[in-house]
Each structure stands twice: as C-alpha cells, then as structure tokens.
Amino acid sequence: MVVLTADQVRAWDRFTIQHEPISSINLMERAAKCCTEWLCTNLPSSQSSYYIFCGKGNNGADGLAIARMLYEVDRQVDVFILEFGSSGTAEFQQNLQRLHPLPVGIHYIQTGSGFPIVPPGVIIIDALLGTGTTRPVEGEMRALIELINASPNPTISIDMPSGLFADQSTIPFSSVRAAFTLTFQCLKPAQLLAENAAAIGDLQVMDIGLLPRYLNQVQPEYELTGKTLSQSIIRPRNNFSHKGEFGHALLLAGSFGKMGAAVLAARACLRCGPGLLSCFVPEKGISIMQMAVPEAMVVRSTNSDHEKTNANDEHLGGDLPPLHQYQTIGCGPGIGTNPATVQLFKELIANFRKPMVLDADALNILSQNQDLFPSLPPFSILTPHPKEFERLAGKSANETERINKARELAKKHQLIFVLKGHHSLIAMPGGSAYFNMSGNASMAKGGSGDVLTGMLTGLLCRGYTPEQAALLGVHLHGLAGEFASADLGMESVLAGDISDHIAKAFIYLTS
Ligand SMILES: NC(=O)C1=CN([C@@H]2O[C@H](COP(=O)(O)OP(=O)(O)OC[C@H]3O[C@@H](n4cnc5c(N)ncnc54)[C@H](OP(=O)(O)O)[C@@H]3O)[C@@H](O)[C@H]2O)[C@@H](O)CC1
Ligand SMILES: Nc1ncnc2c1ncn2[C@@H]1O[C@H](COP(=O)(O)OP(=O)(O)O)[C@@H](O)[C@H]1O
Ligand SMILES: [K+]
C-alpha cells in the first residue's frame, strides 16, 4: 500500500488511461463497479434504498455510475445533483446521459431551493467532492454537507468525505462525516490523520486496477512502514556471535513512584537484542530494578559526595557513570524534571555524542531548555506524544502543521522525530517521512511509550542505524500491540504485555 497526494493519484489515473490503455470513462466504470460490489456485499439487502448526492466533477460522475449499477441490481435509487454553475466534466455528462433512460429519480438542487429530507433507512452516498477539493466548502455545498451530517442515516463517502482536503488538514472547516469511506487504489495523506478519523469512518481501499509500474516513477510525499520494509531491515544473529557483538545500552529512567516506566523500558529494550543493558536509576529504585529485571545491570551515581547523592535518591542526579562503554543511551521515561535531573541531562548531552533515544521527561527538559537542541547528538530519536511535541515546538493549528514542524526540526537539527499516535509519523533528517501502519487502541494505555523507548534503545544498541531502528522499532512496537490484543483482547492489554509480545512480532517478521 502507498500513500499519494491528489495530484499523484490524478497522474496515476492518466498513466493508466494512457498505458493500459483504457478510456477515462471505463476506468470510472471499474471504480464504480468496485463501490457497488462493496455496497451490495457489506450492507444488508434490507437496506436497499439510496440517496446519492453528486457534485459535477468526476466524483459526482462516480456517483452517477454507482446509481446506474445499483439500479441494475434492483436497488431503489434517487440522485440529487448540486448545481454550482459549471456544466460538469465530460465523464459527468456521459454518465448522466447513461442514467437518463433509466427509471431513477434525478433531482437538481438549485441555489436557494429546499434540500430533500432523507427518509429513515435510506443510505446516503456522498459523491459531491473527491480529490478535486481545492478550497473550504461554503454556501449551498456546505449547507448540503451539514444536512447530510445532521441526518441519522448511514453515509458512505466515495473516495473522500466531501469537503475534506486529500493532502492536508481541513480543520477548522467542515466536511461530510461518513460511516465508511471507499477510497480508490491508495491512501491519501489526510486519511492517516487522527483529526480526520470521525470524518472518514471506516476506510476501505478499492483496488481499481491502476497500473503498478507508475509507482516506479513517483516520489511519495509520505511512505508507510510495513512487513516488507521491516523484513528488509532485520538482521539475523550469527551462529558464532557473542554478547559483545550486540552492544551495551544504558537506560536513564525512573524516579520515586515511576520506577515502573524504567522497568517497562528495560524489559522492552532487552527483548530487542542488545548484548548488555545497564540502567542508571535513582538510589531508591535500585532494588526494584534488580528484582524486576534481573537480566539488566544497575549502575549508581559515581558522585563521591554522599550528601549530594542522597539528596537526590528519589530522582536521577549526581554524576553520570563513564559513558564511553555504551553504544547508545535511552533517556526519559519517568525521570521527572527535578533540577538535579535537569543538570544530569545537560551533562549527558555534553558528554555523549552518539545517537540516543529521548522520550517523556527528557523531552520536557528539552522544551524548557531549547538552547540544547543544536547540541543533541545528530540522528538521535525523539519520541514525543502530541502534548510533548506541543511543549517542544509550540501549538499547532492542526495535524498537518504539527507534522510539517516535526519534518522541519528533523532536517534543521538532523534528528529523527517519532510523532506518536494511531499512525505514528516518523520524520527523518533527510526529509522523508513515514506513517506507521501497525498498532491498535489496546495500546492507548500508560506505559506503551516507555516500551517504545526501550525497544528503540535496544535496536540502536544492537547495531541498526538510527533510521533503521526508528522504522523497525515503531512498526515492531505496533505489531507487538496487535499480537498482545489478539491474545488478551483490546481492553486488557497492559504495556508490559506489549513487551511480552515483541517476540511474536519478531517471529512473524522473520518466518
Ligand atoms: N478517470 C478518472 O478521472 C477517475 C476519477 N475518479 C474520481 O474523480 C475524482 C476527482 O474528480 P475531479 O478531479 O473532477 O474533482 P472532484 O473531487 O469531483 O471536484 C470537482 C470540482 O469541484 C470544484 N471544487 C473544489 N473544491 C470545491 C468546493 N470546496 N466547493 C465547491 N466546488 C469545489 C473544483 O472545480 P473548481 O470549482 O475549482 O473549478 C473541482 O474540480 C476522484 O475523487 C474520484 O472520485 C475515479 O473514478 C477514478 C477514475
Ligand atoms: N490507538 C492507538 N493505535 C496505535 N498505537 C497507539 C494507539 N494508542 C497509543 N498507541 C501507541 O502507544 C504509545 C503511547 O505512547 P505515550 O503516549 O508516550 O504513552 P506513555 O507516556 O504512557 O508511555 C505510542 O507509541 C503510540 O503510537
Ligand atoms: K465524496
């Protein structure tokens, strides 16, 4: 699966029309057939009446073709065409002519005329606007969209919920809110934004047979993580290997009351293959760590000033252990923002120059000390959730703005940003960006992010490049969540269960 902008999809249509070859109207027939078959297969036959709302572009042309095909399989169909000046595209006109001889009600909604009241049980097909949406909806179009949204009838949008931009956020403007969106051939960027979830509903991708070889010549604005990509990254463990070949990671995590974050990160780190793991935790957390994660070592502050160390025994503080022996460092889960910890973090940045993983309170400290940004080791991986990113980069009006800010910061400071969410966005220093496609809502629980931090630290330590660690780690984390929820159900997965299912995710990717 790929994600392409509206322009790229239009070019893919044209490429297919030219090289298959197939006429535009016949390609549209294929698209309409896919939608009609989906409707007939997925909606109960008792729901056999449709109100199809059409614009006068090719999205509306799809609506007219679907109307004809639904009529041919004995569905009751009424078509409502919103007049807005133009005579419509050639395909619209052609499909209108094909519909005219049939006993399908064709109604024109003129400016100022009344809108229909949709009777109960009738299914609404939204074919007003598709990927050709160029501006926020207003006037009659907006009023009609509001009518559709106000009606309790199920709405199925063709290609895009009308009003929604395909490539960027639409907020604060309105769009249709669909129960299902039947989109063509590939994902569009806006379909991956959490803020559009209520507009898009359940997204179904219809394979309308666009020629795959077009993809060889296109540079997508966004790429997707997935099994093939992860499989291309994963390296086997050599039969003769020993622990020294897989690196030694250091984790800076935990504070009084938040040792769980350290334990979760440490366990997840160890599941990703590092040779050794040491954890630098506050004095009061040492025994917790030793008992909960016997496979990890614990290091304590090298500060000889016992008073200073004891004053910080609930928080990380004092002096760092010697850092040269570590391949990488994961820092942040549960550390808090105590002044002693802030000082420790500054020393860490000043003294460790290899890529590291920064999460949670490490990001909060960074937010309060923005001058540290240029000093971060290049290719470090930062994993903010939306609130943490807001603290780092200021408020964003919408998700597109947030993503663009992350992409700019990644390029400017040569960092990797993982904007966590349902489809986490990975922004690379070279400018590319990936949406993650694994994971589910069973992971929407405290501690899931700590598990990710541990995993990324483990993968970096294991010898993957930072880009590889980010792509593999984020995808693997989501897969582990999916395996956990398959075993335990969506409600009952704990963050530790994600960690306990990393093994299954690895086995799935390597078998
Ligand atoms: N063979 C093919 O070509 C295939 C095409 N396919 C289908 O084509 C769809 C794309 O069709 P499309 O490019 O004609 O654009 P569409 O979304 O119908 O918009 C129409 C026009 O509306 C206008 N407009 C824009 N914003 C507006 C607004 N806010 N309020 C009011 N008007 C607004 C704007 O014109 P403007 O007014 O800017 O001149 C725009 O051109 C695609 O989603 C898929 O369904 C599939 O069947 C596969 C095969
Ligand atoms: N609905 C969801 N679908 C997919 N992944 C999710 C979902 N909810 C949460 N996650 C994942 O779980 C992790 C949560 O991270 P975060 O908010 O930092 O949690 P915490 O700080 O409690 O550890 C992220 O990696 C995120 O992508
Ligand atoms: K639509």
TrEMBL record:
Its EC number is 4.2.1.136, 5.1.99.6. K(+) binds at N59, D126, S162. (6S)-NADPHX binds at residues 58-62, 130-136, 159, 261, 334, 385, 450. The keyword NADP applies. Residues 9-216 form the YjeF N-terminal domain. AMP binds at K420, G421, H422, H423, S424, G449. InterPro entries: Carbohydrate_kinase_pred_CS (IPR017953), CARKD (IPR000631), Nnr (IPR030677), Ribokinase-like (IPR029056), YjeF_N_dom (IPR004443), YjeF_N_dom_sf (IPR036652). This is Bifunctional NAD(P)H-hydrate repair enzyme.
